[in-house]
Design goal:
The N terminus is likely disordered. Strand 8 and strand 9 form a beta hairpin. The strands form seven sheets. Strands 17-16-18-15-19 form a five-stranded mixed beta sheet. Strands 3-12-11-10 form a four-stranded mixed beta sheet, with helices on one face. It has a four-stranded antiparallel beta sheet with strand order 6-7-9-8, with helices on one face. It is of the alpha+beta class. Helix 13 runs antiparallel to helix 14. It folds into two domains: 319 residues, 3-Layer(aba) Sandwich (D-Maltodextrin-Binding Protein, domain 2), CATH 3.40.190; 212 residues, Dipeptide-binding Protein, Domain 3 (Dipeptide-binding Protein, domain 3, Roll), CATH 3.10.105. The protein is 26% helix and 20% strand. The chain is built from 14 helices and 22 strands.
């Protein structure tokens, strides 16, 4: 999805970083009001239509996606927000977050760790079948995770996993190389999706087969995805009504934000999400006028930032990175580029969330930036010049031109190169960039972001590396591993404070803004937020998988028309 102006490089996220979210909506009860009605800190007020009766069964939802995906095999294909939204419709994750951001069983029946968290018994719900009638069993889990471990894309996310053993028909043992106390969190998104063996064996271009509420019947590349209700779906709501409520979901790719908003207001699509100001601002106006509904994600969301490749010149030099930080006028960026519609950001975790820490970060200081540019030139004998990689949208062009101007005021020389999102992601993960506009790190549980920061994932240029900035810091590594080895909240908070502080010292990310993430729907849509978990407890309301702030399960969404 997009974080401020930068396209959601779910890219990686793609990878696996899917986490989860969900929260109160549907199953026979009205719960779109589960989120606070407004947020004084952001100035966004939620607008929803009250539910007046039980869910209605039937109808097809038209959902606008902001991008295309390169396929539907979660062990091979890159899913950004759009791919994850479709994936959550076709597949089910093994786990999903509850309202307290603790990963709970979803397709799985239970997760049972050894005392030292080096082994996890994952039990499946009995009697599960794929959409083609194939049984879902422990042998399938072994096949899926062996495919992940063999995948250049997803293997880095499972570096801690040693092997998977089949214990009995419905139970698999996941043996770890190190303690992994939060392992279920990694199963809330792409890594936790359960495709059929036939889908795992394919290249992702075939129609996928999962256990999810909807079955894909057509994929028109670059245009649309058509799904219909899965008649053999395993879930019912708390009133005993078979899920999903909808007869199907049609996903339509609409890349330009204004076109998407116009389509929603006109009723040509029923639901969509946005975080860019040119989407949020007209959505607010339309919601206030009663034309549409709108709900903001008030939990952990992504930051927009410029990511620096610290393994390549010029940003392998600390003075260059410091110059960038001091030269970036965040307040002017928010006012000029984001029309005053985003929030300041100075650390990787959002203020008000459990892992926030007030980590020191360079304040805008043009004179200091000029001094550091000169210092860099003295240290290297070269001018501070680089290429900024941006997505090929109008919003990306606007962002790039602003950043070029402010950085060149400090004495840098900046060349802009624009690429479409898919190619830009490939350039980033293979280290073929110097600076790139980015948006990431919105997972409710920071362990989901482990793979982006651990030094082992900082691959050489040309190789796929999920530590995309190529930043290697032993103190960050130690803190990440310590946080991963425990469920004690205070201990985890202490270690993630170290991570946030060291990231602000290393400066692989030059913070720009934190966007408003809003889901929009026409007035007939109910169950906009995620419905209860299978055991009936409330889900995390919105966002989560891989840090994608707008992904929601559509299992208990329905149409009141």
């Amino acid at each position: 999805m997009q974080s401020s102006r930068s396209v959601k490089r779910g890219l990686a996220a793609v990878v696996l970083a899917s986490a989860l979210i969900a929260a109160a909506c549907g199953s026979g009860k009205s719960s779109d009001s589960a989120q606070p009605a407004g947020d004084a800190a952001t100035g966004i007020t939620d607008v929803t239509v009250a539910t007046t009766g039980p869910p209605k069964v039937g109808g097809t939802l038209n959902y606008a996606l902001d991008a295309e995906s390169d396929g539907w095999n979660p062990t091979k294909n890159r899913w950004a927000t759009a791919g994850t939204e479709v994936g959550m419709a076709v597949y089910d994750p093994l786990a999903a977050y509850d309202e307290n951001t603790v990963a709970q069983p979803y397709l799985a029946k239970s997760f049972t760790p050894s005392p030292d968290f080096t082994q996890w018994f994952v039990a499946l719900r009995p009697g599960l079948v794929f959409q083609d009638g194939t049984p879902v069993d422990a042998a399938v889990l072994k096949t899926i995770f062996e495919a992940h471990k063999a995948s250049a894309l997803t293997a880095p996310a499972l570096s801690a996993l040693d092997e998977v053993q089949v214990i009995d028909q419905n139970t698999a043992l996941f043996k770890m190389k190190q303690p992994w106390a939060t392992f279920p969190s990694s199963l809330t998104g792409q890594l936790g999706m359960v495709p059929s063996p036939a889908t795992v064996a394919g290249d992702g271009t075939e129609l996928p087969i999962g256990t999810g509420p909807f079955k894909m019947t057509q994929w028109q590349t670059g245009d649309s995805v058509t799904t219909v209700k899965n008649p053999s779906y395993w879930r019912k709501d708390d009133s005993g009504v078979q899920l999903p409520y909808l007869d199907g979901v049609n996903f339509k790719v609409i890349t330009e934000t204004q076109s998407k908003i116009n389509a929603l207001i006109a009723g040509n699509v029923d639901m969509a999400g946005t975080s860019v100001p040119e989407g949020v601002i007209p959505a607010q106006k339309a919601a206030q006028a009663g034309q549409i509904q709108m709900i903001e994600n008030k939990g952990e969301t992504e930051e927009a930032f410029t990511m620096l490749n610290v393994a390549q010149p010029p940003f392998d030099n600390a003075s260059a990175r410091q110059a960038m930080a001091y030269a970036t006028d965040q307040a002017s960026y928010i006012a000029a580029v984001d029309q005053g519609n985003t929030q300041p950001v100075s650390a990787v975790f959002r203020e008000g969330t459990p892992f926030y820490t007030d980590a020191p970060y360079p304040a805008y200081d043009l004179d200091k930036a000029k001094e550091l540019v000169k210092q860099y030139e003295q240290e290297t004998g070269k001018p501070l010049e680089f290429e900024l990689l941006e997505d090929s949208t109008n919003a990306g062009s606007l962002q790039a031109q602003f950043l070029k101007q402010v950085w060149e005021q400090a004495g840098m020389k900046v060349t802009i190169k624009q690429q479409d999102q898919a190619l830009l992601i490939v350039s980033a993960v293979t280290g073929k960039y110097q600076a790139v506009a980015w948006g990431q790190f919105g997972s409710p549980d920071p362990d989901y972001d482990y793979l982006w920061w651990i030094s082992d994932n900082a691959a050489p240029q040309g190789d796929l590396g999920l530590n995309i900035a190529r930043n290697k810091d032993p103190e960050i590594d130690a803190a990440l591993n310590a946080a991963r080895a425990t469920t004690d909240l205070a201990e985890r908070q202490k270690n993630y404070a170290i991570v946030a502080t060291k990231l602000n010292e290393d400066l692989p990310y030059i913070w720009l803004a934190r966007g408003h993430y809003v889901l929009m729907a026409v007035n007939s849509v109910r169950g906009i937020l995620q419905g209860p978990l299978p055991d009936g407890q409330p889900s995390y309301p919105m966002g989560g998988p891989g840090g994608f702030g707008l992904v929601t399960r559509l299992t208990q969404t329905w149409l009141d028309r």
